Amino acid sequence: MAKISVIVPVYNTRAYLEQCLAALAGQTLVDIEVLCVDDGSTDGSDEILRRFAETDRRFRLFSQANAGPATARNLGLANASAPYVMFCDADDRYEADYCRRMLEIMEREQVDVVVCRARTVVEDKNVGSCRRAAGDLAYNSSYTGRFNLDKNMLLNTGVVLWNKIFKKSIIERQGICFPDGCEHDDDVFWLLYGMFAKTIFFLPDMLYNYRIRAGSIMGNYFDCRPKDKYDRFKICNFAYSFLQNKRMAPGMLPVFAEFCRRQAEMMFFELFAPEELRTVAHKLNRIQREYLFVEHGEKLFSAKKQGMETAGMAAYVGYWLLSKISFGADRLRFREKKKTIRAQLKVKRFLAAADKGQG
User: Fold this and answer.
1) What is the pLDDT of residue 44?
2) Regarding the domain with residue range 4-227, which homologous superfamily does it belong to in the CATH classification?
3) Where would I find the H helices in the chain?
């Protein structure tokens, strides 16, 4: 029985696919299954996939009309049979002992996820050294060893899937999946998985080779040319719906808020017009406020609405939270309300102390 299911979404990567699949076939850990999902390729990639599936029983081929990598990964997850799941992009390459090392750490350390380091392969000669350095910094963590996966660790760990090994039991138990049709599906998958994972191990070995090339999702990222400029807004909506259905604990609100804030920041790099940015930021603010009130109701603002009594600690905390999770004009407005209430609280404390002194 396979110990690891490796999911490979494939779309028009014929030039690189042979090398990718050969590296998977040559893994020192033999007990793996490779689930290749052809996402409607038109360049003959399907011929290479069929050849590997016919000559190596560990390779399983699935086909779908072109729907994007998220939908392809969902199809792979639905057919994965091993207790652990890994991912590989069809233009990248595993080192020969990648699967063995990742499984070894998972079983020895008894953690929920293992992260390795990666080697950058830049195909386009026009990609400068700064972009190569940016990739190295984004995907090669400075951490080494075993840690509890707390909020800060979750948010500070790179979101890419291909440098990690996951427990299928957590994915199935929590119903974690990818947002169909979205490019930045790895962002939300890591957020949701990380909310349920408890422990993480950082392996310093460089076991994955990832390629930056024109036309790939990574290439589009470095060139700031997403296919859908609303993609990040869509993944925030997807995460919000998931959290609503799961009735996520209030303690996870800061993680979700920071996730939305980072997605909104990235929109500035993805060529929105100013008015479009304001509209999307307003919608993200509304999503987060709705999530806040789903968890806390009106209790945050239960102080009376008249005079000095509005300066209640509950109202202060409420506006403090809203100022943290909002964007643009809404953030400024909530900050001003928070400052006003803080000043009123100081006056209340002064008057209370004066009354006590007179008494």
Assistant:
1) 96
2) Spore Coat Polysaccharide Biosynthesis Protein SpsA; Chain A (3.90.550.10)
3) 14-25, 45-55, 69-79, 98-109, 129-139, 151-155, 168-174, 185-196, 217-223, 231-246, 253-267, 274-296, 313-325, 328-358
Q: What percent of the chain has pLDDT over 70?
A: 68
Q: How far apart are CA 282 and CA 291, in angstroms?
A: 14
User: What pairs with residue 115 in β-bridges?
Assistant: 164, 202
Pick from 231, 207, 214: nearest CA to 139:
207
Q: HSE-up of 319 (CA within 13 Å, CB side)?
A: 20
Q: Which pTM value belongs to this model?
A: 0.75
Tell me where in the chain the CATH 3.90.550.10 domain(s) lie: 4-227
Q: Which residues of the chain have pLDDT under 70?
A: 124-138, 213-227, 248-250, 267-278, 280-282, 284-330, 341, 344-359
Report the alpha-carbon distance of residue 258 to residue 154 in Å, rounded: 11
